[in-house]
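User: Can you predict the 3D structure of RidA family protein? Sequence below.
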Amino acid sequence: MRYKTLLLSLPLILGVASANAADDVKRVPVKGFPISESVEINAGNLIFLSGKVPSKISADAKEGVLESYGNTEAQTINVLKQIQANLEGMGLTMNDVVKMQVFLVGGEETQGTMDFAGFMAGYNKFYESEKITNLPARSTFQVAKLANPAWRVEIEVTAVRPAAKK
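Assistant: Sure. Here are the predicted structure tokens for RidA family protein:
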């Protein structure tokens, strides 16, 4: 009989736990787009940043052409600067990134193969300096396409807020 009571009360217990967990989640929406810029879990201890894509080199540059966004190295630097600025806005640094997922597109300029060397050249500008002591775990994938035909790079990260920064 005790087991039956426990099984019947389990949905209620889980529902309360879920409701309390929802209180520990902070979502920062993207204006005009149905995703969150970031999601912070457990009072900001664990932060997920949505994938960032390159912005145009200049506001009047053509849309959808590679020259408007730069090569893989330039796009990587652009995207990592966006991530860095986003983290700084939350009181964090690139040192606080614990996981990075990188999506690279192989374009006509690389015969359809991702430009890993170009990515690493941009990445190393952020992660081979004396300022960065904590390297993230990282996965890099070649994908067929991103939403814009000129984009070659999208990066998403997970960061952890150290106790000293709470």
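Residues 2-23 form the longest helix (22 residues). Helices lie at 2-23, 72-89, 116-127.
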